[in-house]
Amino acid sequence: MIPLTDGWGRAIKSLRVSVTDRCNFRCRYCMPAEGLEWLARDEVLSFEELERVVRVMAGMGVDEIRLTGGEPLVRRDVPTLVALLARVPGVADLSLTTNGVLLDRLAGPLVEAGLHRLNVSLDSLNHARFAEITRRDALDRVLAGLAEAERYPALRPIKLNCVAVRGFTEVEIPALAELARRRPYVVRFIEFMPLDADEVWRRDEVLSGAEIRALIEESWGPLEEIPAKASSTARRFRFADGAGEIGFVNPVSEPFCSSCDRIRLTADGQLRTCLFSRREWDLKEPLRTGASDAELERLIRFAVSHKELKHRINDEGFVRASRSMSQIGG
Ligand code: SF4
Q1: Is the pTM of this model over 0.90?
Q2: In the predicted model, what is the mean pLDDT of the chain?
Q3: Which residues are 162's β-sheet partners?
């Protein structure tokens, strides 16, 4: 097996698969209140097409698969897709990122199908503020979904992703940090990135990981850093008394592109070699016009050989990605 490697010598181990561009939330840092124009159903890759791409990728050493959206669980029968992908030889890790509102019903079927890990978006534990940022009054359902997921020890770790926005997140930090101490959740604060569909992102709205860490340490004393794997997007910390883990994903203030091992597949079959790509590689056409696995492999290797070295958020003249977050899938 010849591992999939980019033009900078980085081994690509992780594929994020968007299974739909649709979502049942309207988070302010992601999409407008009215939503976006959704892909037509026949534009979206079928489970069989997704399974085929994952199988070809796994044959090149891509062994970490994460399912994303939009909101992946709004697509029907995602546990069926999980079961398909869990049987693909070479897939060692299967995870899913969700807003959690459908987890109360689907956590069990997802685990039975073979899901290993879960990331749940959670920006506030206050009902009014949760509704303010997601434009949905759904905090109780998300917490019920988390409680349901907790019932399955096989589904670990359970990570909570909090998008950190200056002027909003500061007051959320104590409650979220306390949650990491009380429940088996790893709470991660993710810096706000210029991937919002409204294109209103401003640098001064980025609340950095270092600032959040300082706020947490004001209350709980110095956090202890935990070693993380080289390609990890998060810096991991535990509380001094050992109760709970906190993570900081700092793509703006501490970019981690040098060890990036990720590529992405959009719901309509476009391969993106970077979250901030302005170029995509079409896999849908070859998938639907009889390309062989070998031809797919050649196309993927060619695309990855052109993978961007890094994002350019901090560079003069930064140009936004060609799609917004919900159309890429994070
Ligand atoms: S911005 Fe692009 S290169 Fe950097 S870590 Fe993300 S996907 Fe990788």
Answers
A1: yes
A2: 96
A3: 189
